[in-house]
Amino acid sequence: MRVRSGRVVAAVFGVAAVFGAAACGTSEAGQAPPSSIAVPTTTASAPTTLAPTTTTTAPPTTTTTTTTTTSAPPSTTAVEYARNEAVYFSSPVGGFECGIISLPTRTEAGCQGATTPIPARPENCMVNWGNGIRVTGNGPGEFLCSGGPVYTSGVSAADSVLPVGDKVSSFGFTCKSEAKGVTCVKDDTGHGFRIATDSNDTF
After folding, report:
1. What is residue 124's three-state secondary structure?
2. One digit per residue, pLDDT tens: the chain, 203 residues?
3. Which of 4, 33, 67, 98 is the most core-located residue (most Cβ within 10 A)?
């Protein structure tokens, strides 16, 4: 009986030792007990610092536009002043009435209006003399001998002005409005005239 009691006591002490070791949180192998409590982990986020944003405004763009004005060449008009297959116009300087016309006996370009000097009246001119100059296909320009207006379309002079520097061409003749008057030339011969209030020339 004594021996048996000793074994029981030893067994009791062995069980107590096992429970004691469990209570201390260690095992015989030195490992953590199988049941462990997870501790929530708190992660502290570092404050985010935003780098200052610098906005650079570009200086306004300056556009320089250079406009080059080139004077247009004088225009040559063939039909703007046409009336009944003829061309009529007036000069803004000197008030000359001019035309390029085709007659049954000849084709000519001429201007009527006051001009000086005037050559002596020829014997065969029985009507008005020297009130204008014309050029035909027979040679240099010559003064007019006429009984009335020749180069008129019935349109008022103000409505048929040929600007200075502009030209009209028809029937092989070209007339140009100039600063002092008008010049008309037969294209294929170069013969013609210049007329102004205080001068004139035939060639």
Report:
1. coil
2. 444 444 433 333 333 333 333 333 444 444 444 444 444 444 444 444 444 444 445 544 443 333 333 344 455 554 467 766 789 999 999 999 999 999 889 999 999 999 999 999 999 999 999 999 999 988 999 999 999 999 987 777 677 899 999 999 999 999 999 999 999 999 999 999 999 999 999 99
3. 98
CA distance 105 to 87: 18
Q: Is 131 helix (H, G, I), strand (E, B) or coil?
A: strand
Rg (alpha carbons) of the chain, rounded to whole number: 60
Alpha helices, DSSP H only, in 24-93? Answer: none
DSSP state of 83: E
50 DSSP 8-state letter: P
88, two tokens: 């009529």
Location of structure tokens 């021996």? 3
Q: How many CB atoms lie within 10 A of CB 155?
A: 13
Tokens encoding 111? 């201007």
Query: Three-state SS string across 86-125, please?
Result: EEEEECCCCCCEEEEEECCCCEEEEEECCCCCCCCCCCCC
Q: Cα separation of 135 and 200, whole Å?
A: 13
Phi, psi of 10 (to 5 degrees): -65, -40
Residue reference for tokens 């014309």: 134
User: Following CA atoms 136, 137, 141, 144 in sequence, which dihedral angle do they give, to the nearest 10 degrees?
Assistant: -30
Tokens for 40?
């929530």
